Amino acid sequence: MVQGQRWRLLLLFPVGLFIAWFIWQRVLSDTSDEGRLVLYGNVDIREVSLAFNSSEHIAEVLVEEGDRVKKGQLLARLHPQHRLADVAVAEARVAAQQAVVDRLLAGSRPEEIRQARARLTAARARLRDEQRRFDRVRGLFKKHSVSRQALDDAEATVDVADADLKVAQETLALLLAGPRVEDIRAAKAILLADQGLLQAAQESLKDTRLMAPSDGVIRNRILEPGDMATAQTPVLTLALLDPLWVRSYAPETVLGQLKPGMAATVSSDSFPDKRYQAWLGYISPTAEFTPKNVETPVLRTRLVYQVRVYVCQPQRQLRLGMPATVTFDLHSTVVDGEGQHARVCNSAEGQ
User: Fold this and answer.
1) CATH number of the domain to which 187 belongs
2) Of 131, 185, 254, 280, which is the most buried if we count CB atoms within 10 A?
């Protein structure tokens, strides 16, 4: 009996040794094989929640879920009637104040100056006439032919004519000098304030139009025409197509082999024959536990570092959340991120 157990142990030992060797080789093949390093992760992209910068009922939503949109494309609109009225009022105020400024800058019209000169000539003629009349009355008063009251009335008339002459002279001087500098500055300040109100009204009108901030795909259509939109309520969710990356996790033992800008290839289960050109763009400075949704053959409880591998995919075949395998060439040349992006993506598009 003891002899049989001994034989069984001798038979199980090489089997166990083979199993251990197989597991070891499997783990090594997933980390490093002839200058290669293999990591696993999921495709990730950025998402943007799009909301109006205003509160109003939605007039129309022009896109559906899954639609591809371009930067600057109109996606949805609010009812614009109130904003249009505000813009019209602001434009009228600007136009009126602009006319005031133009009038002040233009100064007096030639017709006004000629009119003032004519009044000055008339005032001088009247003063001369009243002065001659006063001289006659004074001569008669000396001969006792008129009363003292008549002399006083003639003198008062001369004073009034002299005052009218001075008024005419000052009026002409003001017209020739033009408006005061202070009046022009005040009018310009009011014009600037009105222009600011107009710009604010125009911006408020623009806020009734929801535009795509970048190229992407509409993921969710949250609100519908008739809903009340606010700045805190997203209307659409936009998935940005560029950049696209694979979020993966590397154990501490391989961090020394990874450098930003390192070339890599990405493959997926959906397109097993496709190899997408990529490069390492980011390595997390802090460790974390491996996420449960990452399909790796290593222990899920070990501490790992998140890495981000940017991918060029001219055919747009990779989708958000898709499992992916990243293979690094440990002997590749490391360059700066922007240079790597241009080199890798141009090479991928030319293939």
Assistant:
1) 1.10.287.470
2) 280
